[in-house]
Amino acid sequence: MIAQLPTAAPAPQYPEFLQALRASGFRGQLSTDYATRTVLATDNSIYQRLPQAAVFPQDADDIVRIATLMAEQRFRQIKLTPRGGGTGTNGQSLTDGIVVDLSRHMNAILEINVVERWVRVQAGVVKDQLNAALKPHGLFFAPELSTSNRATVGGMINTDASGQGSCTYGKTRDHVLELHSVLLGGERLHTQPLTDAQLDTACAQPGRIGEVYRTARQIQETQAKLIESVFPKLNRCLTGYDLAHLRDEQGRFNLNSVLCGAEGSLGYIVEAKLNVLPIPKYSVLVNVRYSSFMDALRDANALLAHKPLSIETVDSKVLMLAMKDIVWHSVAEYFPADAERPTLGINLVEFSGEDTAQVNARVAEFVAHLQADTSIERLGHTLAEGAAAVTRVYAMRKRSVGLLGNVEGEIRPQPFVEDTAVPPERLADYITEFRALLDSHGLAYGMFGHVDAGVLHVRPALDMKDPAQAALVKPISDAVAELTRRYGGLLWGEHGKGLRSEYVPEFFGELYPALQSLKGAFDPHNQLNPGKICAPPDAPQGLLKVNEVMLRGDLDRQIDERVWQSFGSAVHCNGNGACYNYDPDDAMCPSWKATRERQHSPKGRASLIREWLRLQGAANIDVLEAVAGQWSWLRGLPKRLRNNLARSRGEEDFSHEVYDAMAGCLACKSCAGQCPVKVNVPEFRSRFLQLYHGRYQRPVRDYLIGSLEFTLPYVAYAPRLYNAVMGSKWISRLLERHVGMLDSPLISRYNLQATLAGCKVGIASVAALRELTPQQRSRSVVLVQDAFTRYFETPLLASFIQLAHRLGYRVFLAPFSVNGKPLHVHGFLGAFAKAAIRNAHQLKALADCGVPLVGLDPAMTLVYRQEYLKVPGLNDCPKVLLPQEWLFDVLPEKPQPVAQTFRLLAHCTEKTNVPASTSQWEKLFSRCGLKLVTEATGCCGMSGTYGHEARNQDTSRIIFEQSWAGKLDKQGEALATGYSCRSQVKRMADRQLRHPLDVLLEHALSL
User: Fold this and answer.
1) Are 874 and 904 in contact (CB under 8 A)?
2) 243: which DSSP letter?
3) With contact defined as beta carbons under 8 Å apart, do 674 and 578 qualify?
4) Please, are residues 320 and 399 in contact by the beta-carbon 8 Å criterion?
5) Of 402, 404, 384, 403, which is closest to residue 394 (Cα–Cα)?
6) Is 232 helix (H, G, I), strand (E, B) or coil?
């Protein structure tokens, strides 16, 4: 099962360059490992290019070292490409040279000037990170993107990004005041609007800076008429080398117009001074529904007459996918369903301003138009009023890119002609022809976009593993490029050119040599992101063509179809990067947030599994048969020990790099709930671990964790002895040093028998439940035990029993049975399947008696709904309710005045996989006269046994401090639903949080 690395050796100059870079005093990281290179080989596009290495500069001085070294004659063959969030849809940051990742370290907000309304930031600052820092000052950075929670400011500048609201706020370029860049050779370039006198001074400078200014001025002065005729008069006029704006409205010369959108092909942008704006005090979003998408497009021109902030559109395909996504529970009220007249298109029309009354008056006038105008059939409209409501609806629209990757089957919408721009008044006719083109190829597609700007994102559905379908990329691109030109538009109106740059010479025509001369002044040897936008006149390598670049599908088709389908959760990752969410108070992928290493993200881990599966196939290893062919543990021991010895001697196996990435996963399942494509890392992680440990011996801690549920019922007979042993210092040191475990929990000594007797709890059996009358069954509940709340946190088990008893319900305690989650997490899938089948049969027998089943711990309980249903041969498992789901139906509604406020710190798995769960707790508290506010939190850092493993100790603490540590001392008692969360708070902050059940029990007497 060895996954050998590709044998092609790197170009000889690259190792020498990296060695010289380190010797120059470079302070950041240099990485040539295959895992890092594999993860950085893709972005949010259809392309895949394996870099030679990746470098992670610590600061601008490191960038100077890179640029200085690569200008030396001996390194003129070195190619480098800057990278930010890696969210590009056109391969802008992909290279077969060296990736320069500016996001890991260069991500500081340097200065905020509230009075003058500007901010200075490093290139790696994420857009939402910046706006979070600006929000307390009532300011925001205006250009809006669907990827705003992971897109970096440097990336936005390099693609001149824009999105919703661009007709009002403009593009990124319109908010750039100054840029600090590093040019080839190491010169530092500071660009801002210059008067003619200042321009003369700049042109007189020696070196590359002077040459750049002289070349740009000559182009502006000699090609003005040609520039005027070539550049379209559009809101999205052009991304990159924008010669039309070399002179601003005040007549000043501004080189930022060509740097914005240059995709790193002219220099390294390291710092920016940006204009920021006051946050509108009030917003209303009018959500207009249509019976067809074309009606929505044709209505846009009339709606624009009311001068809204923006108009966004979404088609039926995106809507249907959104309805199946976690986002829908928060926006469903704004899109009422009608079976007879289904909604097949929507327009989201935003009005905003400083004065609430004025905004409402404009909305009222707009709504009157909707009611009076009969030229277009509209199904109705709703209003989302206020910033919170507007943000919720836009969150659904922002997920459109990712959602389109979550259609069923292998034919999926692909980005390659998806950001065309035409005059808005011609958009509907243009889209009619665009659809006819795709229909002629028999292709389905999804659409969404910014109709006010004439930009529509169209993604034709293709199976890129099918060579015949992949071959359609080129002819469709050619046809769409011609179509946009005919309608006075652009093939690339929003997301940059990247690997579609082959159409640049045709678009610029006679002006293209001017672009070449500009590129030559900045980068004479074509080393900076070569093949994109423009090549110097004498460059041996010209522009890359869309059908000459490696596609992800070219590699994916090398994976056996059975394997591909079996590992669909991993291989369907489309690279949209939602898992790169910067927000520490969001649950998505805590390991990525803590490490800032992209292989420790769902996208990174999915990329590694895809490549690992491909390499397995190349080595003629059938991973589906490998499990069945595994020997018994004892028979396979000699082989595993030999392989472990070989590994210790440095044997190459890509599997080790994949293992390191998988071992860093917390298995919190936030990705499974939040990823638009539903990439489920814990699922394929457990399968990988099973295969990996068929070849390499497991550490002892895996066996201890996997056997925990089996051993606890026995050691619980002697809690004093167990606690004394596990609590001793020498045992703790032994476990940490030789087993890799620490902070082992102690068994609760709570007298459960007294509670069982006092509440007349019965032991759940089929016979006992069948003896109940129908009325008795309606007033009964079966409590399904889990190892953690049963043995380590027994008082919580008692709280549920007592609460149910006070509500008039009889509790039956299901016999303790192994749930299997620890087995699944660590890849003991054979043992997990046996436990799941045994447990599911027992639970089904009890459920068939008509009494609801309830489990306390969300992580353990949700295993019955998710992992159990994927066990071969297990066709059914009854639904085991979370406590709030059961209480929601049985707790009486008696509205009372609010007496006290609490705060809920919800479990990651629970809130991301059952999004309604937190609102159910809030409503339950309201029934008791209590207020419960759900706190926005990331992961606590424990996640089952992850935090108890010594290798994870540092990362676990970082994760805790990123979010939970700052939430504990806020006003109102903090409550936590997860056993692991409460354990982590006790361990890290020496505080004991209560479960919401404990609070409800206190107030149950008033019900």
Assistant:
1) no
2) G
3) yes
4) no
5) 384
6) coil
